[in-house]
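Narrative of activities, Objective 1.

The group set out to show that a structural description can be obtained from nothing but a protein's sequence at a throughput compatible with the screening campaign. Below is one input-output pair from the validation batch, recorded exactly as produced.
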Amino acid sequence: MYWYTLTPSDVLICRDAKPFSPGNGAWASSVFPPNGHSIAGALNSLINSEKQLKFKIKGPFFCFEETLYLPRPLGFVGTTPLVPVDWDENSPLHHAKTNPFQPRPLVTPSWSVRESNENDSDNNDDEIEYRQYLPSDVVTTYLETGKINLEDWQLQNKGENQPWIIETRPHNTMKEDSRQVKDADGYFIENAIRMHTGWSLAIGVDVEIEAPMPTTMRLGGEGHRVVLQRCDALGEQWDKLQALSQHNFNSASKSIAYLVTPGVFERQDVEDDKKTSLCQAKPWEWKLTNTVNKNQRAGVLVSFATDKAVPISCRFQSSKSKDKKSIPAPQVFAASPGSLYYLTQPQSLFQDNPETKVHAWRKLGYSELLWITYKPL
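Output recorded for this entry:
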């Protein structure tokens, strides 16, 4: 993989695929970071200007200067990790009555020791700001030990909670020969993204970009551009994470799968001769460990921690149209980056198999997992 930084030359506008037309009170929503489809489309325009090449991407992630950042794992409350209740026999909730056919409840482990002084009324955990994006060295320690130290959660520089700000921009259309705004289609609002100084997007591509570095590339709407720069240091950090993850995956013990890019887990159902695509927050092939009846085979998934779904909207060229017009593609909903999946042993995804149709999601950078060996303290 060849790694690059994408630094906006100004603001970025990454709209979703919802229909939008400027009108009275209209609001153009924006999504950030851009999804894999947006990155691949921008790269395709740059790489395939002369050659028709197929490529695979990793990311997008964030980086500060030359340090790779990944989304914080969601299986934590503040700085306290959560574990499935079945994995902690000393938990006071271990024998609590729960639905055995649902993902197991996540609880604060009995061995977790609160480092802050609970008698200090001024020390409210809810008011403390923690990193929402973790540097690669912290993630490396997490993969090695299964822990994130208290000091590693503390903000070290601006942007580690959110590397960008949103600028709301109103737009007016004036009446001819007048200083008044049009009554109809005369006003709309859109959100622009401005990244903090020193922060960039980071991507890996399995095809070397044969362009003088640095170069510029269009990304998002309104013709906004980013500066594309080669950064081998990011590749070294990613390779180290991948090596640790693969070592953990090869173990046959309890494991945690750490989702670092949006996870698209889609399945097509047929009912009354109608095809329906369904998305959920966990891979369909990962069955729960508890079965409904004796004829079922127990799976490996014990529980998972996630957040609200991430809508993935893109466009494709219509094959029915002679001029190949671009039309909106069906929207899918991805599991949030940072989701954690607790398994009795590691299990790969169907998407990882290059022979499957759904491998296309992996080529676009979705559903990237890092593996941690579960180590109770």
